[in-house]
Amino acid sequence: METVLERILGSAALDAETTRPPRLLAAMRHGALNGGKRLRPILVLEAANLFGRSDQGVLEAACALELVHCYSLVHDDLPAMDDDDLRRGQPTVHKAFDEAAAILAGDALLTLAFDVIAGEAVHADPSVRLRLSRGLARASGVGGMAGGQMIDLESEHLDRSEADIRQLQSMKTGALLRYACWAGAVLADADESDLHCLTRFGEVTGLAFQLADDLLDVEASAETMGKATGKDAEAGKATLVGLWGIDKTRDELARLSKDAETLLEPYGERARVLTALADYIVKRSN
Amino acid sequence: METVLERILGSAALDAETTRPPRLLAAMRHGALNGGKRLRPILVLEAANLFGRSDQGVLEAACALELVHCYSLVHDDLPAMDDDDLRRGQPTVHKAFDEAAAILAGDALLTLAFDVIAGEAVHADPSVRLRLSRGLARASGVGGMAGGQMIDLESEHLDRSEADIRQLQSMKTGALLRYACWAGAVLADADESDLHCLTRFGEVTGLAFQLADDLLDVEASAETMGKATGKDAEAGKATLVGLWGIDKTRDELARLSKDAETLLEPYGERARVLTALADYIVKRSN
């Protein structure tokens, strides 16, 4: 994965006729090659693998999705958004470069994703590549991730209902995780009932991911700072753990974990890695 | 065109299953439905028309390109970039809403373009839609418009050579104008030699557009403020008119105008509107 991302973000343009300005490319690399967990592309790979496909083309599609995720982090970190100076212990892009470079690097990472997903290796059938490209646009845009981020920013210091928070999270973090599992199945020509099952698995996994994230935030603050509210609560962010408390959230996570397992049961041993991934998401500590 | 843009940016999502947060949608509409000249989409329509295609699908593709142009204006106007409070006499998106909304609205307009260009009406053949989508990504990204904007920001208060300024402009404004003419021909299944000719016409038109823009900037300042340097010069922007002076720039514009006409001569009367458009670009006063 890192090798493919490194090549995609190398100084040689995918389109041999164009040049890539070095400073913008450096800002894009800073935003994308920073030791992320690569959870979304790994879900793509494993979902495709479940239906018997694992080759370079799947990796390319997986990297396109990761570029979208990385662009969203670069923009979310900006002073006008979450205003974060550090990500994974490194200065964020606008700190390492400047705000203009971070805005443009995010824009260019997002745009590059739609170049990469259209690549011939991704799938022999252009209509499948187009379906993947359009799906990526829908998962990322006003009805998906970008829309969710907007609702999240608006939700600060507002009392939101459980339904509102679920909607927000299904857009902000859920949409890309659902896309990852769906796209893997599409890449491997899975049939409609398998696509449906993987999409459901992606939804459940997305919700579990968000709950685990919220729990981590509260628990990390309790341990390291001796207080029971995390930085989400201090920022006035609407979370389900804020609404439910820790115990109910843990119960819900266990239920989701069981759901994910049940969804993959029909695939037996072949789904071992995907099941382990879902388990990691529930139990992860960072 | 406005009707189609209005529908694309309506509250009903293209994908019926998703919802669009009202405030983000409002910011996107503010950035896109603000009385622009629609030069790029008109070039798409007229280039397609030259080869006998004019239908709803061409309009959709043209609007996808306009969404990309509008996103770039929303982001370029941000305080960290060109820091403009007004566009066409209206508050810019970050003034009418806030910076976070402007960043997300730009992101979502860009993303929406890749949803729209993949629409079935655009072309019956998915591989043509994919070609248009990938071309749009390349014209807009690190090797095109976004890269050009980065070089432009870096160029402030630097002495740039003519070759450097040409490179910058061919990326920043040239890439989308070239794409517009190429895409129109692709939409209408023009053959390779016609594609080549329209691409060249797009390049010439792009360069003329930029020179006319630079001249307008200098001349408007001379008339309205009684001084011979425009706001580009004051911002330390690298322009060819700054390098050449007004007279040489006018000569070059006349030459480009002639080139554009010559490129379209083989198409005779059918190219009347495109020729008039190129002429308008050279002679426009705003």
UniProtKB/TrEMBL annotation, chains A, B:
Domain of life: Bacteria
This protein's record includes keyword Translocase: no
Gene3D superfamilies: Farnesyl Diphosphate Synthase
Matches recorded under InterPro entries: Isoprenoid_synthase_dom_sf, Polyprenyl_synt, Polyprenyl_synt_CS, Prenyl_diphosphate_synthase
Lineage: Bacteria, Pseudomonadati, Pseudomonadota, Alphaproteobacteria, Hyphomicrobiales
Cofactors named for this entry: Mg(2+)
Keyword entries, A-Z: Isoprene biosynthesis, Magnesium, Metal-binding, Transferase
Name this polypeptide is given: Polyprenyl synthetase family protein
Transferase in keyword set: yes
Protein family (similarity comment): Belongs to the FPP/GGPP synthase family.
Organism encoding this protein: Roseibium porphyridii
PANTHER family from the UniProt entry: FARNESYL DIPHOSPHATE SYNTHASE (PTHR43281)
